[in-house]
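Quick question, first post here. What does this chain look like in 3D?
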Amino acid sequence: MIRVILPPHLRTLAQIGDEVKLEVGGLVTHRSILDAIEARYPMLRGTIRDHGTRKRRPFLRFFACGEDLSHLPPDTCVPDAVASGDEPFLIIGAIAGG
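> Answer (accepted):
Ran it through. Tokens below.
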């Protein structure tokens, strides 16, 4: 069971609590986690990844085990602690401004 924490605006859109628990079959990668989120919560399609390119939206970042995973290829396996459910996969909304 994978644990995912979404930013507040996506939690509101999906009408969920602080943490989502998902079953991800096979290798646990960024892509497989996002596929599972979008399958379970179709209203989130296009909010985390672009519809056409499937690339991460610019103002969202992915973190796990204290590491920024945002710029790794989507088929990169997440750390073992995330795959086992011990640590969450975090999707964080970046803040821009000056």
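The helical segments are 8-14, 30-40, 80-83.
Strands lie at 2-5, 19-22, 60-64, 67-68, 89-93.
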